[in-house]
Write a structure and sequence with these properties.
The complex is a heterodimer of chains A (about 100) and B (about 250).
Chain A (H helix, E strand, L loop, with lengths): L9 E3 L9 H8 L5 E3 L7 E3 L11 H5 L6 E3 L30
Antiparallel strand pairs in A: 1-4, 2-3
Chain B lengths: L4 H11 L7 H33 L4 H13 L1 H14 L10 H27 L21 H13 L3 H23 L3 H28 L3 H14 L7 H13 L1
Helix pairs in contact in B: 2-7, 2-8, 3-5, 3-10, 4-5, 4-6, 5-8, 6-9, 7-8, 7-9
Classes of the chains: A little secondary structure (about 100), B mainly alpha (about 250).
The complex binds iron/sulfur cluster (SF4) (2 copies).
The site of one iron/sulfur cluster (SF4) has 13 residues of chain A, from helix 1 and helix 2.
Chain lengths: ~100, ~250
């Protein structure tokens, strides 16, 4: 059985992003290196979907500080702050109150 | 302990969602337990202060808070404090801590930007006519918080990760304080002072979160962070409220 979640593209909304590059740092830390710097004059960083494993991985979302700066490309859904569904199921930390929606 | 809803929301949104697991994460949860009572207390007192300020017909409180902010951030702090931290990672550790260095360099810019923002509020509020006037004011150039300058200028020389505690605890407090101001006050200049800073403070908080999750894996690394927190949470350590009161007295003198 294929348990891989269906691949959904994400992108950075540069109107909301603070350019702190935390996403770049954390994605490199997990060795996926999917946040890449555009060599163009603005050196904006973008997500390379050939490398990104979202929604299998959501690490950049857990550390990005700027609400609405990482969005699903098609749905436009904002993923920062992380939607409850990406963490409420995790039982490592029992203090987490179950939340609905985001 | 009943948590203030602003703190609960902060915890649920920014503290608990975590991209890593393992000893760093477990350690950060332990640190979180230590921070929560202090965060809760400071959220409550920020609410009280905001409610009082909101009732005051004059904007005297705004002058005190931007002046303390100006003294505590901007070129002054960035150059002294952040640059000492950039230098605190020894050459052989540079590769291991390159992300810390990168984030620290980013913070120099954030803090300079904050200083500019505070000056802008002072100018718009009519407290000064030119930013240069602030050069004559000791209050605009010193901040009497021992933990701030003591810890931030000294601890990084002991261990590159010591700053993670400062980022987690202090910048977490800053996020909570700013949230309170933005929700309990309705003053456009105060909002202008706080709005963009919120995201920067959150970034600095995330820096501490990330550093603990990823780097605080051994007893030795964790000890450096715990020691810093011991210092920050000492009951004798002056608080930001003390510093603001001091700035107020200075302004009244
Ligand atoms: S972490 Fe978020 S705010 Fe920072 S650069 Fe990435 S998308 Fe932008
Ligand atoms: S979801 Fe994971 S792989 Fe994709 S950009 Fe974010 S951190 Fe990198």
């Amino acid at each position: 059985m294929n348990t891989q979640p269906e691949k959904i593209a994400i992108r950075i909304d540069h109107d909301k992003c603070t350019e702190c590059r935390m996403c770049y740092v954390v994605c490199r830390e997990i060795n996926l290196n999917a946040v890449v710097i555009d060599p163009g004059p603005k050196h904006l960083h973008e997500i390379d979907m050939d490398r990104c494993t979202y929604p299998g991985c959501t690490v950049c979302l857990m550390y990005c500080p700027a609400p609405a700066s990482i969005v699903e490309t098609v749905s436009g859904l904002s993923l920062v702050p992380p939607p409850a569904r990406v963490w409420t199921e995790d039982k490592r930390w029992p203090r987490r109150a179950p939340r609905t929606g985001n | 302990m009943e948590l203030h809803p602003i703190l609960q929301e902060f915890l649920d949104t920014w503290v608990y969602p975590t991209g890593f697991s393992g000893p760093g994460y477990d350690f950060r949860m332990h640190i979180t337990e230590r921070c929560i009572p202090a965060w809760n207390g400071m959220t409550m007192s920020a609410v009280k202060a905001a409610q009082e300020d909101a009732k005051t017909p004059t904007r005297e409180w705004l002058w005190s808070s931007v002046l303390a902010g100006y003294a505590g951030e901007g070129p002054q702090m960035s150059i002294k404090q952040m640059s000492t931290q950039l230098l605190s990672v020894s050459l052989e550790d540079q590769e291991r801590y390159i992300d810390l260095q990168r984030m620290r360099a980013q913070q120099v810019w954030d803090e300079v930007k904050h200083g500019m923002l505070h000056a802008d509020v002072m100018l718009r509020g009519g407290y000064v006519k030119r930013e240069e006037e602030l050069m004559d004011s000791a209050d605009a150039n010193t901040l009497g918080i021992l933990s701030y300058f003591g810890c931030t200028a000294m601890f990084p020389h002991i261990h590159p990760l010591a700053r993670a505690a400062q980022h987690y605890f202090f910048e977490g407090s800053a996020c909570l304080g700013i949230q309170v101001r933005m929700r309990y006050m309705n003053d456009p200049l105060d909002l202008h002072d706080n709005l963009s800073q919120y995201v920067d403070e959150l970034m600095h908080f995330m820096e501490g979160k990330y550093q603990m999750d990823v780097y605080a894996l051994t007893e030795k690394d964790q000890r450096a962070i715990e020691d810093t927190l011991d210092f920050l949470l000492k009951p004798w350590a002056p608080t930001l409220a003390d510093a603001l009161a001091r700035a107020k007295q200075g302004a009244a003198a």
